[in-house]
Task: structure prediction
Amino acid sequence: MSPKQKTLQKISPYKEVANVLRNDFPQVVGSFIKNIDGKPHYCALGFLAKNKGVKDWELRLRTFLFEGNILSRYGFSESDLAKDRLCPVDGCNSVSTLFNMITHLNDKHKLPPRLIADYEEKMEFDSRKIPSTWQRVRDSVSNFFPKFVNPC
Ligand SMILES: [Zn+2]
Result:
């Protein structure tokens, strides 16, 4: 393969998202964008949207949410975006779509963007089976009340 063909080869959307998140940007939790000390800070998804041309005011008013899933601009298929994901953080049994999982890693686990990038990139090849809703409820109850669920 010639060097020119290599540059034309498309990288996977997971890799592209991870590459964007690996840029150093001022991060905020719980909001797509927030001014701190007069400087805009972004959550992971806010920064991913900004990278695809969404303006800061559109992030503030959340108008971009009406234009479809921002991650589709990275080339994810509809089925990729609709697929349930298991949270990659050890001991967490949250399940949600990629869009919500990136928010979850940013807001719930408060991970720095570089770590979100690492986890997001691995989700492309995540073959773990998603436990049933009942199993997940049971697991989260047993985390809080170990003796109640496992009396022995
Ligand atoms: Zn989690």
User: Anything to note?
Assistant: Strands lie at 33-36, 39-42, 85-86, 95-96. The radius of gyration is 18 Å.
